[in-house]
Amino acid sequence: MKITKEAQAQARRLMRLCMGADGLLQEDTVRRIAATLCDEKPRNYLAILKAFTDLVRLEVARHTATVTSAVPLTEAEKNAVRARLATRHTGLQYEWHTDPELIGGLTVRVGDDVTDASVRSRIERLTRLA
Questions:
Q1: CA 12, CA 9: separation in Å to the nearest integer?
Q2: What is the pTM of this model?
Q3: Fewer C-beta neighbours within 10 Å, C or N terminus of the chain?
Q4: C-alpha span between 88 and 84 (Å, rounded)
Q5: Considering only CA atoms, which of 78, 89, 96 is closest in space to residue 112?
Q6: Residue 18: helix, strand or coil by DSSP?
Q7: Is there a contact between 70 and 102 (Cβ–Cβ < 8 Å)?
Q8: For 44-60, what is each residue's pLDDT tens digit?
């Protein structure tokens, strides 16, 4: 579906309405706006809804830290990761995953920002240099 500039602009305006004073996305407002769009069905509502949901998805990703480690982290290690990320990001939600293929270390993804401190990535870099 092709989304017009007008639909994108309307979606951006709706997105601004969903942002709280603290700069975080207000989930209840997002739900109300989506429900209103579906109920009232204004002109181009499908394009507006698509653009709006894309913006919401990107905003949620910006405030979600996905931490993947080779072994399950202890609560103390999780708190250390949270403290480190709190210096650069505010209002993060955390997702914790394990992937034995990392061998050791961990990877952290916040939005488009990826920090890869895994043993697997170091080995891959060394093999490319050899």
A1: 5
A2: 0.74
A3: C
A4: 8
A5: 89
A6: coil
A7: yes
A8: 899 999 999 999 999 99
